[in-house]
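Below is how a single chain appears once it has passed through the pipeline. First comes the sequence as given, then the structure the pipeline wrote out for it. We keep one example in the README because the format questions we get most often are answered faster by looking than by reading.
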Amino acid sequence: MIQKLQDSRAVLLGAVAIFALGLTTSGYALGDGLRRSKMAEHRNVTVRGVSERNVTADLATWSVNFSHQGTELASAQQAVDQQARAVRAFFLRSGFRPDEIEDYNVSMSREQPTDREGNPVGPQKLTVTRSIQLRTNSIPKVRAAYGRQAELLRDGVELVGSGSNVSYTFTGLNKLKPEMIAEANKNARESAEQFAHDSGARVGKIKTASQGYFSVGARDGEDCDDCGSSGGSSPFQKVRVVTTIDYDLG
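Resulting structure:
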């Protein structure tokens, strides 16, 4: 009887030992799996790819703003009309077509002079302001004419505010987008592969990707990943796009 009890006790202790060993092994395997999973989450690299193109603007918008001040609306309007004819004549002799020239804006303001007590003094002052805009694809003609804009002053044009300014725009961006995006993605992949090589790893699949947006700025300006512009005061411009891609590392 005693022998049977001893044998049963030995069997029970053996079973408990085996069960404990199994729990230990399972716990180690589970912990190791979680550790590897956690490590895998952090084995990634974020890289940026850049693509740039030098372009020349193909659209110029030139606005000339002028005004005249007086006490009589009729005379002020007549003076502004004369200035408008002078601006149109300047554009026409510079080689631009009549259909490229248009009235852009006209406005009038009144100002009543007052004394220290706020009482009206003298007649009201009227200011008539007008703008004429040139919109053309003839970029060389615009650059040549812009260098002679002092002629407007000699012709009696009373420039106001920004006076005379030209904005150049590149309109062919959509044609460049597919090729530039592909190039930026390729550059990003090459950067990731170089990083993986230096780290003794290999590039895996893409985790996240962000194309970014296209910017158009002066060709000689500073690079700016977050700039967004449709052009500027120079016809010589640079198109830029930056992509950001997060790769797994094996």
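The domain at 43-56+172-249 is CATH 3.30.110.170 (Translation Initiation Factor IF3).

See the next section for the split statistics.
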